[in-house]
Write a structure and sequence with these properties.
By secondary structure, the protein is of the alpha/beta class. 42% of the residues lie in helices and 17% in strands. It contains ten helices and eight strands. Strands 1-2-3-4-5-6-7-8 form an eight-stranded parallel beta sheet. Helix 5 links the parallel strand 4 and strand 5. Helix 7 packs across helix 8.
């Protein structure tokens, strides 16, 4: 199994990263894509520790829409910072997470748009996939992807929690959907319906650690080992086995991120 999205370079894992990786391996999770905030020097400084603890881990680097405001005067500076980090980290495999977030609006929407655009252009320049964060901004997210993608862009909608109609719109971009632990929540029936309908070759699984722990761990710090619960839930939703889901999502991860 692969945790396709986690934040284990964050400060939440400083005290027990080794044990977190051991639990992941014991649960059958062989690797993870670790998301890094390009502008966060402290997080970037923890990368060698993560790489040593989990050599199979790969990395994605981007400027999250919450932090786009730091580049309000120079949106291109966001892409320049990501480029600098990519060049310094050979194990990087994607740009992300990037996108739009209108739920909190921590950054002005116009700034979010420009920072998103310049990072998409960098992804095309580097032939890298992107990891999309979109919240209450789906129309603008899809519009910008269409305008900037040139039909060559590849990527994944991380932490997908939408209904079947939202899934269809997202899948029409050619991107994958990454299913989080939210799929185990009692009120997430429309997400389960979407996960049941999506093609097998367009799905990934993730934890988004340390956030959104699945049942029965809800309310606790999430960690990569718990992606096994997402795999179990997805197998139940799709009427198949956990082994089959593990194989399919690992294959999809390989195809997208070329680890």
């Amino acid at each position: 199994m692969t945790d396709s999205h986690c934040h284990i370079a964050g400060e939440e894992f400083v005290g027990d990263l080794g044990a977190v990786v051991e639990r992941a391996r014991a649960a059958g999770v062989s690797r993870a894509l670790v998301i890094l905030a390009a502008e966060d020097d402290a997080e970037i400084a923890r990368v060698p520790t993560v790489a040593t603890a989990w050599p199979e881990a790969r990395f994605a680097i981007g400027v999250h829409p919450h932090h786009a405001r730091a580049f309000a005067d120079n949106p291109q500076g966001a892409a320049d910072k990501v480029r600098e980090r990519l060049d310094a980290l050979p194990a990087s495999r994607a740009i992300g997470e990037i996108g739009l977030d209108y739920h909190y609006d921590f950054s002005p929407r116009e700034v979010q748009h420009e920072v998103f655009r310049v990072q998409i252009r960098l992804a095309l320049e580097r032939d890298l996939p992107i990891v999309i964060h979109t919240r209450e901004a789906e129309d603008d997210t899809l519009r910008i992807l269409a305008e900037e993608g040139q039909g060559r862009l590849r990527g994944v909608f991380h932490c997908f929690t939408g209904d079947p109609a939202a899934a269809e719109r997202a899948l029409a971009t050619g991107f994958l959907l990454s299913i989080p632990g939210v799929a185990t929540f009692p009120k997430a029936e429309t997400l389960r319906q979407a996960a049941a309908l999506a093609p097998a070759d367009r799905l990934l699984v993730e934890t988004d650690s340390p956030y959104l722990a699945p049942i029965p761990y809800r309310g606790k710090r999430n960690e990569p080992a718990y992606v096994a619960r997402v795999v179990e839930q997805l197998a139940a939703i799709r009427g198949t086995t956990t082994d089959a889901i593990g194989v399919e999502t690992d294959r999809n991860f390989d195809r997208l991120f070329r680890p």
